[in-house]
């Protein structure tokens, strides 16, 4: 009887200690990243370098870490979807189901969309531009018909499922954090049920998700910078829902630190 009790207790402990991983990746460099332009909801494609990043950085590091997935989430924007397709192709698992959800779209940068960050800083000052970029409540001016990308964004058929009353004209970081909250709860529920998920999104959306995942304060998340195509691995206790161990960035640490600094800067 004692041996049976010990066996049952051991099984219960194993069940409680079971973990599952979630991997978060920012898409590869886009054409707008390359040109140092605010992008947001404009559907800019990956640059040639960005496509290569998805293969030789994201996919290669995921393969080296022996990561396996059951399902993939991305946004409605092609730079997110193309990154997913490149990664899955390199990992030889293109058969995986892919869920594209508008709530994972990049933060909407309003009327800043399409403007070079350095040009804007020269006009309004670096402090103002960094306020728009990094302040938790920094709200760019709403996009209007004068912006050359206004109609491309408003008429993008990929956004047909966005409720009219939720279609943004601009967003702060706070608004972006609130937008991704419901879908994060849906994804986390799947993770805790054992689904191995790859989540390929955008810079600010990755930061919004990190705030939910790691419980960062508003001040802390303002200072987080996410490089393109660097996988971030989270491990969850499937019973408690809590994070287990340290967060892991897959790849060369010196390269990752260099790219974080590049993301933080306004650029040339």
UniProtKB/TrEMBL annotation:
Substrate binds at residues 26-33, 79, 106-109, 117, 133-134. SMART domains: PGAM (SM00855). Its EC number is 5.4.2.11, 5.4.2.4. Pfam families: His_Phos_1. Keywords: Glycolysis, Isomerase. Belongs to the phosphoglycerate mutase family. BPG-dependent PGAM subfamily. This is Phosphoglycerate mutase. The lineage of its organism: Eukaryota, Metazoa, Ecdysozoa, Arthropoda, Hexapoda.
């Amino acid at each position: 009887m004692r041996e049976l009790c010990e066996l049952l207790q051991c099984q219960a402990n194993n069940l409680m200690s079971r973990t599952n991983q979630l991997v978060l990746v920012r898409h590869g460099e886009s054409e707008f990243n390359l040109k140092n332009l605010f992008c947001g909801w404009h559907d800019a494609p990956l640059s040639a370098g960005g496509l290569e990043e998805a293969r030789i950085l994201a996919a290669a590091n995921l393969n080296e870490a022996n990561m396996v997935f059951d399902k993939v989430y991305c946004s409605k924007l092609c730079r997110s979807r193309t990154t997913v397709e490149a990664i899955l192709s390199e990992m030889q698992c293109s058969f995986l189901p892919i869920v594209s959800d508008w709530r994972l779209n990049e933060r909407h940068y309003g009327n800043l969309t399409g403007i070079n960050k350095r040009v804007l800083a020269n006009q309004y000052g670096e402090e103002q531009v960094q306020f728009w970029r990094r302040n938790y409540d920094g709200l760019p001016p709403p996009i209007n018909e004068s912006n050359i990308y206004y109609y491309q964004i408003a008429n993008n058929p990929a956004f047909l499922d966005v409720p009219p009353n939720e279609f943004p004209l601009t967003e702060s970081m706070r608004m972006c954090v609130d937008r991704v909250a419901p879908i994060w709860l849906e994804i986390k529920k799947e993770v805790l049920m054992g689904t191995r998920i790859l989540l390929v999104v955008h810079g600010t959306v990755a930061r919004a998700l990190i705030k939910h995942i790691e419980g960062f304060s508003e001040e802390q998340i303002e200072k987080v910078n996410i490089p393109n195509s660097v996988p971030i691995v989270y491990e969850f206790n499937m019973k408690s829902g809590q994070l287990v161990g340290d967060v892991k960035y897959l790849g060369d640490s010196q390269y990752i630190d260099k790219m974080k600094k590049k993301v933080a800067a306004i650029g040339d």
